[in-house]
Design brief:
Elements (H helix, E strand, L loop, with lengths): L11 H8 L4 E3 L3 E7 L7 H4 L7 E5 L8 H19 L8 E7 L8 H14 L5
Parallel strand pairs: 3-4
Antiparallel strand pairs: 1-2, 2-4
Helix pairs in contact: 3-4
Protein name: Ribonuclease P protein component
GO molecular function, one term: tRNA binding
GO cellular component, one term: ribonuclease P complex
Length: about 130
């Protein structure tokens, strides 16, 4: 399943700010970047909405896999996992997260990716 619209992070300004973020947590297959929200970076129609949970984005480049089918499968797997973990967490409202998969992530087993995702959330202080 895809992340609900209330949890999605969109817009090049948001991604640029997250890429410059100092709060990075590195794993073997992915990198987690984290910042507090900055409403000025959002599109005008989203600025007035109140965040009920954190906003997330997932970046999977062509370096991970040349095949779109494989990249989409990884995206769906991680979106579903993040949705289950973070959708009900109202204490994380105002936090923006960016998960970037590394090129060798395509060789990892799905269980390993989900475990690393959880460990990065725990390191970042976002997991209970």
């Amino acid at each position: 399943m895809v992340l609900p619209a209330s949890m999605r992070l969109r817009g090049h300004r948001c991604f640029s700010r997250l890429h410059r973020s100092q709060r990075r947590h590195h794993g073997k297959w992915m990198v987690l970047r984290q910042i507090k929200r900055d409403r000025t970076l959002l599109r005008s129609e989203l600025r007035s909405q109140h965040d009920t949970t954190c906003r997330c984005a997932l970046v999977i480049s062509n370096k991970v896999s040349k095949r779109a089918v494989r990249r989409n499968r990884l995206r769906r797997l991680l979106h579903n996992h993040l949705r289950q973990r973070l959708e009900q967490r109202t204490d994380l409202a105002g936090t923006w997260l960016l998960f970037s998969l590394r090129p060798d992530a395509a060789e990892a087993e799905p269980a390993q990716l989900l475990e690393e995702c959880d460990s990065l959330l725990k390191i970042a202080g976002l997991e209970r």
